[in-house]
Amino acid sequence: MPPKLALAIAIEPEPGPANTNMASIRMSDESLTVLTQSYNPVSFTTEGMRLKNDGLFYKISEKDIRILKKLGQGASSIVHKGFLIRENKFVAVKKINVFERETRHQMLNDLKALCDAPNNVPGLVSFYGAYHVPESGNISIVLEYVDGGSLADVQAKVGKIPENVLSKMTAKILRALAYLHREKHMVHRDIKPANILMTIAGEPKITDFGISAFIDSTLAQCHTFLGTVTYMSPERINNQSYSFPADIWSLGLALVELATGKYPYPAGAGPLQLMIHVLQEEAPLPPAGEFSEEFRDFVSLCLAKEPLRRPMADSLLSHPFIAKYASDPVSLKSFMQCVFNPHDKLDEIAIVFAHNYYALLNAGLARLRDLAPLYSEKSNLCYDGEAAVGCDAILAKLQAVAHMHAGWKVTHEVVDVQCQPLGFDGSALVNVAGRLESPAAGNKPQPFTEIFVLSQMQAGEYYVANQVFRLIR
Fold it and tell me: From which residue to which does the signal peptide run (predicted)?
C-alpha cells in the first residue's frame, strides 16, 4: 500500500503582541488540524470536530445535513439553512475558508465561545458541531437555526420597534450578556442588531462570537481594536483598554437605532468622522416626548462616555425601563408574526414530512403501520401505474412493495424536496426526487419521483390526499 499523503502548511505568526493565537494548520488526507499557542488544538475531519486536549468529539458530517438555501453572507463566512436529518431539525451552517488567516482566527474564537457555553443557555445560539469539506477547503460550523432572522431584519420589516416590545427583548438580551460577562468572562465586542437573532416564538439569541475576547477575571482588560466601528465604544475608539462595559455601550446604541428606526450618528461621512462624533458629541438619546423617561435614562446609562459609569448587565435588569413593561400584555411571539413567512413554514413541513416518510419506509415491514395516520379513506395512491384507494388499500400496496424490496435491502434516499402551496386552504404539493439504493453487487441506484398532495385537516395537521410514485427508467 502506498504511504498516505501528509501535507503541513506553515502559516506566518500573527504580528505584534497578539501573536498568541495562530501558529499553523496541518492537513492530511483524513483531517485538517488548526494548531494554536493559546487555544486547544482543533482537528476537523469529514466526520466532525475534535478538541485534542479535551478529547471531546462533535460527530457531525456533510452527509448528515441537507443544505436548503443561502441565508446571508458576511466578510468571513456564508451562512446556509440546512436540515439535520438524524435529528429532524433545521440548522444554520456557517461555511468559513480556513486558509484565510483572519477568518481562521475568528473561527477559533467562535468555536471556543460555542464550546465553552453549554447548549440551551437562554439567549445564546446553540452549537451542534463542525466538519471539514476537503473539496472546498471550508470548515462548516453547524448552529441552531433561528427562524425569525436578526433584529436588523426585523427593523427592516417594521421600521421601528415599539418601546414596550423593546423592553421585553432587552430583558432577555441582558440575561444572556450577564451570563457571558459573569460566567464566561467574555467580551462579545460586536453587539449590534445584525448579531442578535430572534425566533418566531419571540426569543432573542446572541450570535457571532468570532471576535470575542476571553479574559481571566473581571478585573482584566482588552487592548485590541476589533469589531464593528459603528457600535464601538469611546474607549475602544481611543485605543484604550476596555472590558465588559464596551458591550453595554454597543447595546445602548443598538436600542436607540431599533427604537427610532435609524442609526443615531451620521455614519455616511466615513469611519473617521464617525469616531469624532462618538468621542466629542453628547450621547444620542431617543427624543423626549416620543419615548418614556425610563427608556431615555436606561440608554443614557448604557451610553455613558466613562465606561466605569455604565452598569453591568445584571444590574440593568432591575432598571425601571425593564420593570415598567414587565406586566405589559404585549407578546414577543405575537410581535414576531411581522416576519413570519407561511411559505417558509410550508417548505419546512414538506421537508420534515418527506424525510420521516422515507425513514419509515426504510425501516421495513414492522414500521409500515406507522404510516396509517397519514391516509384517509379518500386518499389515492398511484404506484408506478397501479392504483390504490383508501388507507387499508394503500398500506397493503406499500407492504407488497416492502416485501419486494426486503430481499435486496433496497432503501429510499431523498435527493431533493420541492413544495408549493395549493389554493388558500393550506394544501400543498410536495415533489420529491430520490433514488432507490441497494448494497447488492451490480445494482445501480434507480431514480424516482414521488408527488404528494397534502391537505390540511386543521392548522398544522395534514393528510395525504393524493400520491403518485414513478420510477425513472
Answer: none
Question: Distance from first CA to last CA of the chain, Å, rounded?
Answer: 40
CATH number for the domain harbouring residue 37: 3.30.200.20
Residue ranges of the binding site for ATP: 95
CB crowding 331-345: b at 16 or more within 10 Å, else e: ebeebbeebeeeeee
Residues of the chain with pLDDT under 50: 1-23, 216-220, 223, 225-226
Domain-terminating residue out of 282, 306, 339:
339
User: If DSSP codes are grouped into helix, strand and coil, which group holds residue 422?
Assistant: strand
The pLDDT assigned to 38 comes to 55
pLDDT at site 98: 77
- Domain end residue (candidates: 339, 366, 400): 339
| Same domain assignment for residues 373 and 320 | no
Round to whole Å and give the CA distance between 320 and 327. Answer: 12
Nearest to 123 by CA among 174, 164, 191, 185: 174
| DSSP-assigned states of every residue in 75-125 | SS-EEEEEEEGGGTEEEEEEEEETTSHHHHHHHHHHHHHHHHSPTT-TTB-
Let me know: does 285 contact 294? Beta carbons within 8 Å: no
Residue 87: CB atoms within 10 A of its CB come to: 11
- C-alpha distances out from residue 441 to 40, 320, 408, 413, 444, Å: 45, 72, 10, 18, 9
411 and 368, same domain (yes or no): yes
Tell me how many domains the chain contains: 3
| Residue 29 known to be catalytic | no
Strand partners, 463: 455
Is 1 within the bounds of a domain?
A: no
Q: In whole angstroms, what is the distance from residue 131 CA to residue 61 CA?
A: 6
Quick: pLDDT tens for 174-211: 999 999 999 888 888 889 999 999 999 999 999 987 65
Looking at the fold, whether 202 and 284 belong to one and the same domain comes out as yes
Q: Give the pLDDT confidence score for residue 213 in this predicted structure.
A: 59
172 with 211, same domain: the answer is yes
* CA–CA distances in Å: residue 335 to residues 90, 202, 327, 415: 23, 8, 16, 36
C-beta of residue 364 within 8 angstroms of C-beta of residue 403: no
Position 199: which residue type?
Answer: T
**Do 66 and 194 fall into the same domain?**
no
Helix 245-260, helix 151-158: angle, nearest 10: 20
Q: What is the pTM of this model?
A: 0.84
The pLDDT of residue 227 is 52
DSSP 429: E
> Of 64, 190, 247, 347, which one is the catalytic site residue?
190
Count the Cβ atoms, other than its own, within 10 Å of residue 205.
23
Q: What is the pLDDT of residue 391?
A: 97
Task: Print the domain residue range for 208.
Answer: 151-339
pLDDT of residue 308: 94
